[in-house]
Structures are given as structure tokens and as C-alpha cells.
Amino acid sequence: MTLQATIACEVNSYRNPVRFHLPDLNDHIQRIIVQNSAFYERAMLEDVGSSLPEDALIVDVGAHIGNHTLFFGSVLGVRTIAFEPNPAAFATLQANVELNGINGLVELSPLALGAGPGVGEIVSADSADLGDAHFQPGEHGAVQMAKLDDLLLEHRVHLIKVDVGGAEADVLRGAQEIIARSRPKLLVSAATREILGAVEAVLRPLGYRKIRFYNDTPTYLFEPVHSEAAAPTRAVDLIDPRNLTMLPPTQRIVAGMASFAGNEIALRAAVVSLLPQVDCLHLYLNGFAQAPLFIAEHPKIQHFIDMDGVRYGDAGKFWGLEQVEDAVYITCDDDIVYPDDFVARMIGELAQARGLVAVGVRGTIMLQSSRGYYPHDERVVVELERALMRRRRVHMVGTNASAFHSSMVKMKLSDFQDSKTADARFAEYLHAEGVPAYIVPRRERWLQPIEGQRPASYGQSNMGFGLAYDSATKRDDIPSSAYPVSLLRSDAADASSIIYLVDADQADGLVEFILAVGGRERDPVIFVACDHETDDMRRTVLHPEFLCEVHLVARSGEHVSNYKELLWKHAGRIRAWTLRNGNELKMVDADEWGNWFEPIEPLVDVTSTVFSPA
User: Fold this and answer.
1) Inter-residue contact 388 to 440 (CB < 8 Å)
2) pLDDT digits over 382-395, tens only?
3) What is the reported pTM?
4) How far apart are CA 405 and CA 343, in angstroms?
């Protein structure tokens, strides 16, 4: 790289500090990034990016200085191929990729793309605005042009973004084979109706339609859709066949839901949003004398009336599970409007793990101390409405919006005949069976809770109305197993997630350490070792804003031997440091950290008071 990179702006996006080298603030995009300290066209990037799988391949055509490429590589952590033929913009693009250390994820190319091979030059009506420059094909020129179909060969692409100053249709003509083969999402800039018309002329024969548009200069999201004549009658046939082939044998998509009498208005909205996406809905009606007509007369719905409504409550959503096989089972609440892509997205997340996991939208990560209990504040709760750009491992996944394969979860309704919540009992089962649980990426308010006058099933249980299943005092239940409860215990044999271990003599510097190592890794597990679990150390380490599993391990704690056993079992994945005086960080090997877990005497003045995080 010949360009000297300097940091003009740092954008903190979803705990990822992304650095920008922005040498020309006359350029519109660079100026907006600096003014807002945010990604350019951020809303579009978050909306589309959150719907992509973990192993996505993105093609950024017209990458400019790398705004979109940095979001894909740094925030989403997915593979990206970026094309930018303008030498000035390409130099800045290259500097930004190297500045953020994502060279291994991003492949850069100075080629222009079009309908076929050729040459041309970069032209601009405004030399002061780098974004105004574009490639002009011609008989002569120093810039090479190629078509995408000749470059990607057999790659499966998940998203192609095209912004090339008016030649978008030509780029798409040169990518028809990869579009037909991969069926990716397409983000296409079209500044005029003429450009949009040319783009649609290419994409309509391929089965693509506009889904939505973004930005002041319109960028349209195109996705493949079924024609009305060819639309399948079964919900399972609407799912991408490539996802179904990655799951155990799957014949149906089945949903389970529970409701309470008095919540019929919200129930109707929830059911209407869900039914087109499933083949069957099993509905457990608590406290109903009879089923509402819209339930009783619908051919897709099977219902059960529990007139007393005091036995299972919200756990009734599992009633249908023992009646199905070879199915994806979706658990749902009666006070949520489910988006049109809810089931397809959840199945896509299951497929990435070959159906061997459970996925959800709401989840809880436990922050754990060596004292061996779980105060309510020492947990990370990711609520339904919260945006998330990467999927995360969790200890407890919310059953208000979860999915799993019937071959992996064999629970019966009778399994819930205790005082645990449905979420806690489900988490206990997954933990005992070694089934990992994830919460899925999504845009903000992807799922929308329904506000109602009467609490729905979750709210009813939370208020403690005398149910055998009563969340009022039990909602903090944790799977009953040997302490500590760690995601490592359900790791696959070939798991490669990194374990971070730091031995600290004080609390200073630990927040920076945890944020730095936990920001870009996928599901890191962090252990902080110390002599004694002081109040300051506890408040610093066990903080609910850390979106990963964190353990505070005191050598004077009662569970130090449990931690030693757990860490040695996964020693090959550990990266260990010492942190002294808050800023002296040193990496060490196993010969040193192996001695960190010898028990010592506890301090006599350390109490077991529960402290809220700072």
C-alpha cells in the first residue's frame, strides 16, 4: 500500500470500533461519515446485513472508499469481494481495509464490471467529488473491465451490491449466471427511472422483484419471489431448498403457541401473522370455555382447551411437540406480530448448524462469579426489539420466538410440571442434552410486541396467578447442573471459538480488555482470574453490557477447582495474558497460566453481598 493511512474518524458500531481513513472531505461520502461519526447509509446496511447468514459471501460492486465493505467485513465479519476501478478511491479502500485488519476477509479488485470484458477510463464531471467519478467503457483506456460471471465461477453469493453511476444494468447483465445459480439478495442503486427500468428489464426474467428501497438516491432491494401461479401450497415448500437439505429430514413446519382467555385481540394478530409461514399451528388455550371461531374453523389450527388454565400456562406452546416428527418446530407467544420472513430466517439459522442447535430472538447470557450463584443483575438479556448484527451463543433462549428440529428436542408437556418457567426448563433440557442455543441477527424491532389491556401468556405467568407454572418468583431459574454453567460444555468436538484468560491484580483495564477481545470474535468465552473477588472486581467484570460469557474466577473462591478442570479440558483454545497495574498486558503460555488456579485462603472481610453493576 503506497497511501499513508491516518485515522480521520472512528465509528463504534455494535461494539466494533471501525476506523476510517478519509483523505478528501470534499467527497460527499467521506464528509457525511465524519459529520455523523457513523456509516454512510447505515439504516440500509443494518437492515440487509442482519438478514445474512454467518458464512455469507458479499460482492460489493462500486466499493468506493470502502464504507459498505468495512461494515460487511468489520461489523458482520463476513467474506467480501470489493470492486473499485477508480485508482484514487481504490487506494483509500485499500487503506481502510488494512487499517481495520480485515485483509483476510476482504478481497480487493481494481477491475470495473460490466456486461462483458473490455477497457475504459475513469471520468468525472466534478473533480472535487470523488464519488462523482465513474467508469466509461471505450476502445482505449487503462482500466480493465470484466463481467462477474467470469470471475466468481462456482462461488455461492448471498448479496450483490451495485452502485456504479448509471451502469448498474450492464453489471447485472454480466452477472446473470451467478444470480440464477445463487439467488442472492441484490442492492442496486438507481438514481433515475430510466436506470431503474433498465435494471428491472434484466431482473424480472430471473424472477426478481423490488422488495423495498433505501436512501435519498434510491437503492432498491431485489429478491427472488414465486409467481402466484407457481406458489407452493405447503409452507415447507416456500423454504430455500438448500436450507432444507442441510437439516435432518423435514416434512413440515409446525408452530406451538399458548394463550389466555381475554387476550383474543392480540392472539388474532399473532396467529394471522404466523399462519402463512407454517403448515400447522398447535394452540393451547388456558382458561377458555370454547375456542374463538377464527381458531376453531381454521384448517391449519389444532387446539386444546384447558378450562382451568392453571397447569401449564405459557409452557402449553410445547403441547404439539410430542405429536410431530420430521418437522421444524417453532415456539411463539400470543402477543407478538411475526414478520413475513420470520420462519424462513429462523430455518436459515438452523440450517447453518445442520439443525443441531436451537435458535431464538430473545436470549440470556449468564455472567458468573466464583461464589457460585446467579444474582438477577449479573446477566445479559437481549430483548426481542434489540438489533443484533451477529448471532450469539446464549445460556437461555426465549421460547417466545424460538425454533428447533423435532429430532433434536424431545420434550413433552409433562416435562413442565414444576415451578420453572418455560424458558428455564427449556434451557435446562438443552444444557443436559448438549444442544447449543443461539439468538439470531436481526434489525431493530424485527419482531413487534403487541400492547394490550390484558397480559398475554408470558405476562400472565410473570404475574403469578397461582399457576403450577409460575414465573413470579422463578423467572431467574438456571439449568441445575455442576457450577459453572458454561457454553463450553455444549461445544462440538471441533469447536474453534477462542477462550480468553487474563490474570489481573486489579480491576483497572479489565473493561478495555473484555471489550477489545470480545468485540470481533464470534462467541468468545472470557475468564478473569484474581486472588480475591472484591466488590470493585465484581462490579467491573460482571457487567450486563458485555455481550459474551464472562467468568470471574477467584483463587480464594469455592469453585476454583471446577474452573481448573473446565479450562484444562479446552486448553488448546486458550489465549492467556497477565494484566498488571491496569495497563501492563503480557501474553503467557500454558506453563504459566496452569498455576493460576491453586486455591488460596479467602479474605475474612469479603462478604457475599450482591452488588448491582456500575
Assistant:
1) yes
2) 999 999 998 999 99
3) 0.87
4) 13
